[in-house]
């Protein structure tokens, strides 16, 4: 009589159960890591193309952020020196809006270092210009921002904006430091999709320690 070696049904079920538990524990972390890498890449791309738009506008229309002197935002007068015209004319904008808003979570604390405006609860809104780009990225900034120059201004007086790298899709959460701090020693392991920026002259930079950590890898 031949003797066959095999697993029992109980052993197979136990093994499958262990694999299922391990998968359930690791999949959320893996998904967050993948999404975080995508958000980080899109954020770097957005900063780059926004900066390139400013440089291109200087070459073509001879004004930068500091020389934006009007608040034109209706898309009719495309020659007026405004922030809206600068970005709308030089980027692949699907549509502009002055009333696009949706809820966001998280926030950035106001302090002397970052100069943040506080914890926002809506993205966009009637007081902002919001530009939707063809790659899904959205950029919003106050519609009354003018003269965005650095000379003679404090950080609080500079022009601010917000980048959402995936538009209205969740999580709609402002990037924050992993340990809950708000200084330049923070780290961000899993970036989210919303990033505050500061604008002046021909420069667009991160406007929070967490946003800087994502960009520079601190």
SS-based structural class? alpha+beta
Distance between the termini: 68 Å
Mean pLDDT: 79
Q: Number of DSSP helices?
A: 3
Number of strands: 8
Q: What is the N-to-C order of secondary-structure elements (H for helix, E for strand)?
A: HHEEEEEEEEH
Strand content: 15-25%
State the strand order across the main sheet.
1-4-5-6-7-8
Q: Report the major sheet.
A: 6 strands, antiparallel
Q: How would you describe this structure in keywords?
A:
6-stranded antiparallel sheet; two-stranded antiparallel sheet; alpha+beta; 218 residues; 3 helices
Describe the protein's topology:
Blueprint: H1 9-61, H2 83-90, E1 93-97, E2 101-103, E3 122-124, E4 128-133, E5 138-142, E6 159-164, E7 194-200, E8 203-206, H3 209-216
Antiparallel strand pairs: 1-4, 2-3, 4-5, 5-6, 6-7, 7-8
Helix pairs in contact: 1-2
